[in-house]
Structures are given as structure tokens and as C-alpha cells.
Amino acid sequence: MALALLLGASATPPGAVAEAGLRPYVVEGDAIPAPLTGTPGDAGRGRAVVADRQRGLCLLCHAGPLPEERFQGTLAPDLAGAGARWSEGQLRLRLVDGRRLNPDTIMPSYYRVDGLTRVGPGWRGKPVLTAEEIEDVVAFLATLRD
């Protein structure tokens, strides 16, 4: 990790890791190249997270190739073709903390707990998605090549 930091990469804030039990990760450029869990996620479970309007809330802003889901969002890029537009590492960073790429984004940081505002009491100190769920969503989005 020290070599990555010297090369312009940054790591998970140490306080956040200890505080919320977040797994450490290294950001290299516009990506988190390594899975948070050390292993790839499951695309089927990732699809379920994306479609879940209580958990992932992805379809609130994004449309995607989930024809059974009605009332998909139009505020953010369509998820169709996401796997062709971005690498798994780029998708991972966008999910973990999109504010690193665009400080003005309206997309939530799904795996961050520090520096957030307007967080409900039940969610304070907890990421929206687990490391496993992040990897599952990355695996699903990576399959969307058309």
C-alpha cells in the first residue's frame, strides 16, 4: 500500500475503517482495482441489490435493463452498457465513494461513513451497502456490455 500511495493512489481513511469496520482499499487514479472482499461478487445477487428499491435505490435515479421494474429514473446515466463504459475498478470507486470523482454528485457514497451530512440516526457510522454487496453490484454492472 505504501508504494501505491507514493504513486498517487490514496487509501481508505484509517479512522473510517476502525470506526465502521470498513475493509481497507486503495484508490489508483479513477478506480479501486482490487475487490473489497478479495474475491469477485455474484452478479445475480448484484442484480437483486440494483432492483431493490429499499436497499440499493439504484433505480430511483438510473434506468437499466431490468424490464420487470417499472418507474426507473432518468437523473443519472442508464446502467445499460455500464460494463462496456467502465472497468470493474472504476465501477467499484463510483459505488464506494463517487464524490472522489465528482464532489457535486448526487449519487450516495455506498461504502463511506465519514464526512457525510443529513444521515439518519439509524444509519450513522454504517455504510449503505456491505463490501460483499458492493462486489455483487460491481459483478452485475460488469455484465452489462450492450
User: What CATH architecture label applies?
Assistant: Orthogonal Bundle
What fraction of residues sit in β-strands? under 5%
Terminal Cα separation, in Å? 35 Å
Q: How many DSSP H or I helices?
A: 6
Give me the side-by-side strand order of the main sheet: 1-2
| Helix and strand run | HEHEHHHH
CATH superfamily: Cytochrome c-like domain
The computed structural class is mainly alpha
What's the CATH class label? Answer: Mainly Alpha
User: Which outline best applies?
Assistant: globular
**Roughly what percent helix?**
25-40%
- Total beta-strand segments: 2
Largest sheet, if any?
2 strands, antiparallel
Please indicate the count of domains: 1
> pLDDT under 50 segments (min length 5)?
1-8
Residue-averaged pLDDT? 88
| Alpha carbon gyration radius | 15 Å
Q: Per CATH, what is the topology?
A: Cytochrome Bc1 Complex, Chain D, domain 2
